[in-house]
Amino acid sequence: MNYELFIAKRIIAAKQHKSSISSPIIKIAIIAISLGIVIMMIAIATGIGLQQKIREKLSGFNGHIQITNFDNNYSEITLEPVSKNQEFYPEFKSVENIDNVQVFATKAGIIRTETDFEGIIFKGVSEDYNWDFFKEYLVQGELPNFSEDVSTDVLISQEISNRLQINLGDSFNVFFVKEDPSKAPWLRVVKAVGIYNTGFQDFDENFVIADIRHIQKMNRWSVQEVGGFEVLISNFDEIELKSSEVYTETGSTLNAQSVIEKYPAIFEWINLFDNNIYLIIAIMVLVAGINMITALLVLILERTQMIGILKAMGASNVSIRKVFLYNAGYLIIRGLFWGNLIGLLVLLIQKYTGIITLDPETYYVTNVPVYLNFNYIILLNIGTLVLCLVMLILPSIVISKINPVKSIKFE
């Protein structure tokens, strides 16, 4: 029988233990662990959640990897066409874990209403387009259908709708400048069949999603010519590897660029979140460990007489240290239990209500996103428990300094 665990249980269950001098210190230690695990869970869930949402939105507007002509065009507007007759289209068979290959083309335009005007990027897509991203952020109407004849249906953002007073079902004019500025611009009358709101203001205030055949006609391209291809992959963590493989498998006149390469500043910024998460975890574990060290030392000093009796009965220092480490482990587990309960409750409330909001101009999202994965929660709990117990091994050595003769005093 593990008598060390038996003694630890008796200490924990004793009424004197609950009303002793060490009781408030123990409660403070448990609260510190609970708060620490809550803060760590929130830091990880919101940090990873924000990273994923920003990656998702950048990829939703650009695809994970873009294949375009190899030229010096760094703008959002496609200038030279690419032939659709490629080995990798419509299915990229030579590279694994590719979900979809879709064509696109973009053209600068101006929306003109009776009272106002606004410059926009007219993004043309085809029937092969994956609408999953816009389905999530569709706030009104429906998604356009480009599978039949040239469609005048377009998808606009809530930002454009509010600024230009274009409501669902309204038709409006979009003008496109011709290569010869002396000629009258192209005019397209389109209809807003859907309104989206991603909260990514840099894109929302610019992009109108339309039928690619409008751009093909205005640019005098054939139906086999497009602005480029967007490649969607299964796992974003493999994007650098897949970008390299896609680049290798495309022709010498084509360039494959990942969304990370296209927006390096944004990805460098969100990668800094990892450093913040590691720092918060280190600080919280250190605070919890220091509180547990204090509680353990108080428990040992409060039980010096019991330690002396156990030594007089032949118990070794290692066995007695185990008794108090078991006791400390129980306190840590209590703190972890309440911390997990509170942390999960807070995160679930935020996940399903979005009660805490953010400035989309700064963070590219309207509310704090939450990423929940029980793997990281389990690892966080195990790591906290192990690190706290390791930190308690050294202070528990004070038990070996207690003299049984001096400590056994009966009054």
UniProtKB/TrEMBL annotation:
This is ABC transporter permease. It is found in: Cell membrane. Coiled coil: none annotated. It is a multi-pass membrane protein. Residues 28-218 form the MacB-like periplasmic core domain. The keyword Transmembrane helix applies. InterPro entries: ABC3_permease_C (IPR003838), Lipoprotein-release_system (IPR051447), MacB_PCD (IPR025857). Belongs to the ABC-4 integral membrane protein family. LolC/E subfamily.
